[in-house]
Design goal:
- By secondary structure, chain A is an alpha/beta fold.
- Chain A is built from 14 helices and 13 strands.
- In chain A, the strands form three sheets. Chain A has a seven-stranded mixed beta sheet with strand order 2-8-7-6-5-3-4, with helices on both faces.
- Chains in contact: A-B, A-C, A-D, B-C, B-D, C-D.
- At the A-B interface, strand 1, helix 1, helix 3, helix 5 and helix 10 of A face strand 1, helix 1, helix 3, helix 5 and helix 10 of B.
């Protein structure tokens, strides 16, 4: 029997050895709990360096927590969050943003390739500021990379942020795959965030090789005044915070985060190129980061399944394959060989 | 300079080697995310064995999350949670139970040594069931061990549960130090929980040697129907759940959990005995588990501080010392030597 | 100067003399507060007669309260309400349903003339029941009459309710203009509600001649077990409830409610017929109840404004005129005369 | 059979003729809905005159709504409201403050005669500002008159407000019986509120002769920026607001409010004096406003019940009698005659 190769998500992967070593190292000694430890303090410094600006950063255990706490910091209960119709915050978090904001609305905007444009943002923004009968738009949430595996350039983020600000909205970036988006472009973390107008970032580490490490990064620390209360009250203040902060420390050291994301992206590229060469395969979106969305002929998707290749079924004949931080080129080559075999068999 | 010895909390300790090894082992291979993995499935089996009954168990990252999600499962927004005036859920969670229950009330009851009694429970329970002007008591929350480091016997839990049921209340046990309470008594996990009338348990691993591992355990799985939605919606469904489930697997294997808790308790006992022998030291509560609350003469507390012994300042002249899973006897002996030296110096 | 004639809404009208008399009568004598009075008890009986079934009815002061409390009775915080994209609950209540449900989502469905169809309901209902990442659809909310002034027939309600039930949803009817919808069809209140599958009705009196009188009507009283707590907790339990119940008593006596609604509908019909005869005027939707939505040539809308005729500006060249319970035929004739004069002037 | 005389509450009374007339008058003509009418505009002016300062006033239908909306305007979800253990907001609103604040805590303080003192306020205020594990005290809520029928003098309010401000708290006054408290003292509305440090007042009219008329009054209109959204979202923005504003207009005209409250207070005084003269009757608190709390010998309470005198049973042998705006002296004299008759019979 052939080995199973699971490319359904980057969440099915484990963790990088450097991250595991950091957790083990962090275990020795006594340190203050609840984030009073040195590793957590150093994280503030390190992220301030990475983003070339003094930031306020708050580790949390999940991306849903990061997004919801970030959005709630800018959105009153009678407010609204504007996001893409496919955004994770809109369709994959069981209403977490509504829970953390105490019932704000999500306004859904359209856009090709999973990307909003200033035009679709403007179209979705109602003309009812101050109308007491209507929820008040408060923040724009961008996914970077998007749910379609595409990325926004700094210029695109800047144009969206400008459109948002023109309506009085703040800007959030859901960066559960931020590093994948970053390394696919020749820009700095600063250029992709606050320099382009982002107020708050969900900075994800889990999908890219950490065990459990997400952080909410405020580019204006003054906006974070209430955050510590919100986080504690939601059960997201970790008593042994050192174990998350240590993950981030290793993640951001020696360009580990960048190297892991580059690998994931390269594997997605490799896979996309190989699949596209096959008859009947249609790539749905540009492969800007580490996700590949394709239409597969039924014989091929069925054949791959039989051959032990696991992808995520999106809908109809659409499938998602994801490159992970530790997927190697040989594995992707094996997948492509299996795919070619399926095609050959079918054709025969 | 003498070494610093930090006994302020069991949260300042790291993690047991077995737990770290389990995390490292869990990192290899591809497994389904969000709890669809085998380790999480096995955890259900293992906890069902431990508690001698089919349970529904849900790993979460923090004790505050475990408590709040458990309470919210039994308490409508117009409900009330009855607990000790000093309970963690009442005074240490920044209103998390209120957040998760959407605004239920906490009714505070009294009791010596941090312990409720059927009498104080009855006294705190208003006679207003069905009165639409009043929040409706829905659940009794017991801390085991209590915030004073004492424990409830199975008989005591049973009597409290009976009092609660007489008023239509369910019973929750906040077991962030459940294992410490368990090993201090000659009873089984079942006897200390569902056999005594407990409906839902916050089963803590973090304080007792895990990195981050808590679980909500329902003794009647039918009561858990909504739990998965509540957990996801609160951002407490971990994408790489395997890393928490693996901790529990190691924790519950080969009696590790029991051994770690026994050590912590023994160290607290050792410390209490030694301190009590000193003039002017007053033990506040029975040392049933791993916490020691003492009044210290100012010269002694100040002397210990100078000697590098860190305790948690409770209030006035009251201090808390906590034995951890990995505190060794020699460390406690060193603390006692320093204490005796302080006393001798002062006396001289 | 000509008299101002305000047809912008039925909310701009006052109250019927019978309603005012009922309030005045209710003022004498001592009666239990908070709904313990006889008038409130009689209301249960009267509505049970009206709907030919034992109902549980709860007076509240506003339609937004009625809708939100009704929806919250069937929708958990992780649930979703399916409604028309234009529904009052979606766009005119500042997120009240989200507040009362503690953060449920509103799923917006399409449909011509403000009306949902089984097809648009099915299209909007996601295939994710039980998926913990998604809000769970819990109830369908129909506006009767709709926001476009159209009405659902009993058969249409029945088909929608059947589609809803097929997905496990309950059915709510926002009846702020229920009586207007009722009298426009030859059916009974029962046929338009529970016989067609409606579980809970927001039964409005305010727009149709009351001072302030709305009621939530449960067709299965067992579903109303928590309602009294929800209402009190939201500040909607009136201390002098008698004054609302008395309004309903008068409203439902001697067919007053039906007569008032028939008048409002007839005036809308009269106006629609007259306007339609004018060049350039386009009726947007069937005039099934008491609302008329029309496109008006700019010269005509401007002329009417100058002539003191007040309509509600909807958007672009679309205007709404509403017949009220006490609008008389002569007033509408005056409006039409002014409109004809505007047209004549412009043409000239 | 003797006539029933119900003195259980001021809520069991109807409404003053002037108020009923105002409602009837308000019914004629077309006016903008949702508070855009002239009567609502005039109310701002009138209350600004009454309080000698520009205020922002918001009519709402119930006292619970007024209190909860006022508290929520100053208290974040992680905040706490400090109030008397017996306060209406704590024990009579089914958790409405928790609902509107999204889960803030109520901290309960003690005090004789239902009154807080700077000392009991300080004792109840924890020393944990900024501690992320604790709810943060945000506002002090005073009941005026109190739940025991006593009143705070301007000096007492001032001292409490000063104590509150020293801990960073705002000050709310629950004035469901504000006018009763006002007329019992020789001071102005301003002296009893903002001049003494009150930020926001729940100004009640319903208990004192209105049908349904409460208002939230902000003494600093800048603090009211979000109020309109909160009110609408809670279903407390009335479409035919004119009918509440008109009640207030009549209530505040020609000293009606003061006259009605003076009558209610005088009747309570008359009753207290008469009852106190009877053997075995003990007055529990000073009768500062319109409520009388007394211990009654069982024979007397039973006798009064038989004689058709209805009081509210508080607990044990404690009963409450309330004078209403329209209770006349002869009625009280009749009650006293019946009481004396009971005593004579019993003695005999």
């Amino acid at each position: 029997m052939t080995d199973v190769i699971n490319l359904a998500s980057d969440n099915v992967a484990g963790a990088a050895p450097e991250i595991l070593a950091a957790i083990a190292s962090a275990a020795s000694g006594r340190v203050p709990s609840y984030g009073g430890d040195d590793a957590t303090r150093r994280l503030q410094e390190r992220l301030s360096e990475v983003f070339e600006r003094r930031v306020a950063a708050f580790p949390v255990p999940t991306g849903t927590a990061a997004n919801s706490l970030a959005l709630a910091s800018f959105t009153p209960p009678w407010g609204a969050v504007l996001c893409h119709r496919e955004a994770h915050v809109a369709v994959d978090e069981c209403g977490a943003p509504e829970f953390f904001t105490h019932g704000a609305k999500l306004l859904l905007a359209d856009g090709a390739n999973g990307k909003l444009t200033p035009g679709t943002v403007a179209a979705a923004l109602p003309d009812w500021r101050g109308d007491v009968h209507r929820s008040q738009p408060a923040i724009l949430s961008l996914s970077q990379a998007t749910e379609s595996g595409t990325v926004y350039s700094p210029a695109e983020v800047g144009a969206l942020a400008e459109a948002a600000r023109g309506h009085g909205l703040a800007v959030h970036m859901d960066g559960s795959r931020f590093t994948n988006a970053l390394v696919s472009q020749g820009c700095s973390p600063a250029e992709l965030t606050w320099k382009a107008g982002v107020d708050v970032l969900s900075f994800g580490g889990t999908k890219n090789g950490c065990v459990m490490a997400e952080a909410v990064v405020f580019f204006d620390p003054d906006k974070a005044a209430d955050f510590a209360f919100r986080r504690k009250r939601a059960g997201h203040l970790l008593s042994k915070m050192r174990f998350v902060s240590a993950q981030f420390e290793a993640y951001l050291a020696d360009d580990l985060w960048l190297r892991l994301a580059r690998n994931a992206n390269a594997r997605a590229r490799q896979l996309a190129d190989g699949l596209q060469a096959l008859p009947g395969v249609e790539l749905l979106y540009p492969v800007d980061a580490n996700e590949v969305f394709v239409r597969l002929p039924a014989a091929l998707s069925e054949g791959l399944r039989r051959e032990g290749v696991v992808a995520a079924h999106w809908e109809g004949d659409i499938w998602r394959f994801v490159g992970a931080f530790d997927t190697d080129a040989a594995t992707i080559e094996t997948v492509l060989q299996r795919a070619r075999r399926c095609v050959a068999t079918t054709a025969g």
